[in-house]
Amino acid sequence: MNSIFKGFPKEMPQFLYELQFKNTVESKQDNIVPYKELITKPLYDLYEEIVPVILDIDQRLDTKRARCASSPYRDRRIYKDIPLKDYMYLKFRQLGLEENAPVLYFDMGCDNYTFGLRVYWQSIKHMELIRKKIAENTKTFNTVLSKLIKQGFKISGERYKRDRWKEMSDCPAKELYNCKRLIISKDKPLNEGVFNGDLSKEIIEGYLQLRDMLSLIM
User: Fold this and answer.
1) Could you tell me which residues come within 8 angstroms of residue 177 by beta carbon, excluding any fewer than 6 positions away?
2) What angle do helix axes 124-136 and 138-150 make, rounded to 10 degrees?
């Protein structure tokens, strides 16, 4: 199958870096043309290549492009003087949920990118429900999380200072149990794969590896 995504242009990181210093309403028209060429077009190609895999993983995940792929523009109600985003993202979250929605995500800026699984706008109460699932099915969580860690993922959520599961020996399930939020990610500096198209293969492989973990929390 021919790849839709051919990579981001080599000029993308420098453009995003410089955008931080010239991102004004007055310069918006000068910036938007290269923005769409260097960021929006390849990001949409990346989205198109990933969507069939998302639908195969779980059809409860939202795949409408307008809700999944970042646009160039910031919310003018909040950022009145900074019109364009200096980052990009894809997010495939559970359809119909505004809060506490599991999401397979990808974020990238001028020097690094991250992708993985998290919960969108997660509440304290929702994380307590995840802890209950971990306590009731510890062996399965341990098996799935241990495999993900071997595959290069890490449990990235902020930890509580106090151990909330003292009777449990150290293990990946306990590590997640002690997190304030659920985030499982791979974080990487920009590399050649971003520019030659291998990024899509990396993200797709990662999302497929996260399928079992997604099923445990949905």
Assistant:
1) 131, 134, 135, 164, 165, 168
2) 100
Q: Which helix (H) or strand (E) holds 185?
A: strand 183-189
Question: 105: helix, coil or strand?
Answer: strand
Angstrom distance (rounded) from CA 73 to CA 85: 6
Query: Model-level pTM greater than 0.90?
Result: yes
Break the chain into its structural domains and give their ranges. 12-122+182-217
Residue by residue, pLDDT tens for the chain (218 residues) are 568 999 999 999 999 999 999 999 899 999 999 999 999 999 999 999 999 999 999 999 999 999 999 999 988 777 778 899 999 999 999 999 989 999 999 999 999 999 999 999 999 999 999 999 999 999 999 999 999 999 999 999 899 999 999 999 999 999 999 999 999 999 999 999 999 999 999 999 999 999 999 999 99
Structural element, H or E, at residue 216: helix 211-217
